[in-house]
Design goal:
Blueprint: H1 7-37, H2 44-68, H3 72-95, H4 100-114, H5 117-127, H6 132-156, H7 164-179, H8 197-200, H9 212-228, H10 231-241, H11 247-250, H12 253-271, H13 274-294, H14 297-325, H15 331-360, H16 369-390, E1 394-398, E2 404-409
Antiparallel strand pairs: 1-2
Length: about 400
């Protein structure tokens, strides 16, 4: 279908995304139910929020490293090996019932190596594509497929509530690290003698926010990320309450629509402005939570399914938006800043805030799922209103020197 790269090169990029997403799913999808089954419900919100804390620290630092000092594939390799080790230790700690706060500390260490990995992979892949609008969707779809396979594997092996699932995840992180030896390196500057600490820490990426529309995209995606933090901690719990078993496998309904949206992205980018693709994703987000609020088996499954399409049209569109307008010298830092805003700011507020909201909607014997999901639907509607009001559609290009120059309307 796509001919700008050799088939072997496409295969490398697809395998990279597939392996990494499979490992991410094996950790992330069953984590909430594993903590519940191990009597660690009290730290569940904090365990998810640990990802947000890590996103404030490591993505920009490692993004700056990959832009300026060390080839991205090598940075990814180190991170994958460290993540494999911390995943195995966290699984052991949960299985042996270590002190809950020590388990939380180990999970935090895991997230420090985990947080920057997908932004680095994304930047590495985008750097090797000739036309990201046409090519990124099909390549990125393999990450969706990998996530589905990881989640289904957890369900098939009946590991939804078992810490042994994370040993499997550790093995796949190790496989990812080994696979990076087959990836070509990208050129980086040979010296960093004249860089300030501000630049070494990647904080110069904040200059990207000088453009109004870019700020709006960052803010809207971050605000949208807050309510969707409810998805993986609480959608499996809702499924379980309605009588579903193998909840990790049922959650793959989200990846089914994500895959369709990913494969449709090239057509959408060719025929729609980025503004309307992004807005459509927010509309799907409103519907996704509204359907869950209906609190029936079918409505919840439809809501879960819409999550995937909404995710693609908001977050993947934001990644492509940056790739189109940022000089290649900034590519990893730009994606890392997006990770910091979404996974850092959005997740920290989201996991803690949604955790509090879940507690407010829950008694000793019952959760008011209609109120819980309904409020989240209303919050996404407010994000949609903000985006449509604030986004002007004036494109720009951010140069290697940090200068903003005007381009066309998007």
């Amino acid at each position: 279908m796509l001919r700008t790269l050799r088939k072997a090169e496409y295969a490398e990029l697809m395998i990279l995304f597939f392996i990494q997403a499979a490992a991410m799913a094996i950790w992330f999808v069953p984590l909430g139910t594993i903590l519940d089954a191990s009597g660690l419900h009290a730290i569940k919100a904090y365990a998810y929020a640990a990802n947000a804390l890590a996103a404030f620290i490591s993505p920009l630092i490692f993004g700056a490293m990959a832009d300026r000092h060390v080839p991205p594939a090598r940075v990814l390799r180190w991170l994958a090996f460290v993540t494999a080790v911390t995943t195995a230790i966290a699984s052991t700690a949960i299985r042996l019932h270590w002190n809950p706060w020590l388990i939380l500390l180990i999970i935090q260490l895991f997230y420090l190596s985990y947080a920057p990995m997908f932004s680095i992979s994304t930047a590495l892949v985008l750097a090797r594509l000739e036309d990201a609008n046409k090519e990124f969707g099909p390549v990125r779809a393999l990450a969706t497929l990998g996530w589905m396979c990881g989640a289904v594997l957890v369900g098939v092996l009946s590991l939804d509530r078992s810490p042994y699932a994370e040993y499997l995840g550790a093995a796949i992180w190790l496989l990812l690290g080994l696979f990076t030896y087959y990836l070509p390196t990208l050129e980086v500057p040979s010296s960093a003698e004249h860089l300030s600490w501000h630049e070494r820490l990647g904080l110069d990426a904040l200059a990207l926010l000088k453009d109004r529309d870019t700020r709006v995209v960052f803010i809207a995606s971050t605000l949208f990320n807050i309510p969707i933090c409810a998805f993986y901690p609480y959608a499996p719990t809702h499924l379980h309450d309605l009588g579903f078993v193998h909840t990790s496998a049922w959650m793959c309904f989200a990846q089914a629509t994500e895959l369709v949206a990913m494969l449709s992205l090239a057509w959408l980018l060719a025929h729609w402005r980025l503004k309307w693709i992004f807005a459509c994703g927010l509309v799907f987000g409103v519907l996704r939570f509204a359907l869950s609020a209906v609190n029936t088996n079918y409505s919840l499954l439809f809501g879960v399914a819409l999550h995937g399409a909404s995710f693609v049209l908001v977050f993947i569109t934001a990644q492509i938006y940056l790739n189109q307008r940022i000089d290649p010298a900034w590519r990893t830092r730009a994606q890392a800043l997006l990770t910091l805003m979404n996974t850092g700011v959005g997740n920290l507020i989201g996991y803690l805030g949604v955790g509090w909201w879940f507690g407010a909607c829950t008694t000793a014997t019952h959760t008011n799922w209609t109120t819980f999901w309904g409020a989240l639907s209303a919050s996404v509607a407010l994000v949609l209103v903000y985006f449509l009001w604030a986004y002007r559609g004036q494109s720009f290009h951010f140069t290697q020197t940090g200068k903003v120059i005007a381009a066309s309307q998007v």
